[in-house]
Amino acid sequence: MAAASRINEQLTALFTRQPCWMIEPLAAELKYSIPSVRRFLTAVGYYSSFTHNGKWYTLCSIPSFNRDGLWFHHEIGFSRAGSLTKTLIALTANSPAGVTAEQLGEKLHCRCHTVLVQLHRRKKLQRQKTGRSFIYLAADPRTAARQRQAISVQSAQIQQLPAEIAVLVLVEFIRNPKAGFAQLAKTIKRSRKVTVEVAQIERLFQQYALKKTMLTTG
Hints:
The chain is an alpha+beta fold. It has three domains: 2-79, Arc Repressor Mutant, subunit A; 87-157, Orthogonal Bundle (Arc Repressor Mutant, subunit A); 163-207. It is built from ten helices and eight strands. The protein has helices at residues 2-17, 23-30, 34-44, 84-94, 101-108, 113-121, 141-157, 163-175, 181-192, 198-207, and strands at 21-22, 46-48, 56-59, 70-73, 76-79, 99-100, 125-130, 133-138. The chain has a three-stranded antiparallel beta sheet. Strands 6-8-7 form a three-stranded antiparallel beta sheet, sandwiched between helices. Strands 4-5 form a two-stranded antiparallel ribbon. The longest helix has 17 residues, at 141-157. It is elongated and about 70 Å long.
């Protein structure tokens, strides 16, 4: 018991010094083998990152998760759901009207198109084509049916952008081609004092078959 208490104190001190560790440096600091350190982490409770192939660790007590169950330390991302695949499934299932690859990429700060395609092929997610892109839906048939209904309602409600505002969006995109749809909407609202819905920008890109360069929709 004394040894376990000492290890817990050492772990707490190290994660207070820096909130995220890779397993090799952590084992070196503790002067224990990697399998032993994994056991220590399991006993205390930890999260592994959904970014960087799960190579970063943090203690369960550290993350302050946002409403999507995500927490970031610089570019390292952690999720209540766990791995990237589990996180994508959870975020999609919890979305009222499904979600696109770009929307997920903006939330997770990483590309996820390839993983989404794999999840769809494995029947872990459904998807629906809208224009030239896909909206990913929950695997559960009842949840997916509600999401499809919400998509239909939203499609009926979304108004096409006036030509002059569409030009503003396209000009801003040319200036910053790595910006996501949400960032474009925020920038236009801040700089031009014009409110544009993210869904309207998505519809515009679908209408003109434009392709995002940072986060591929799929």
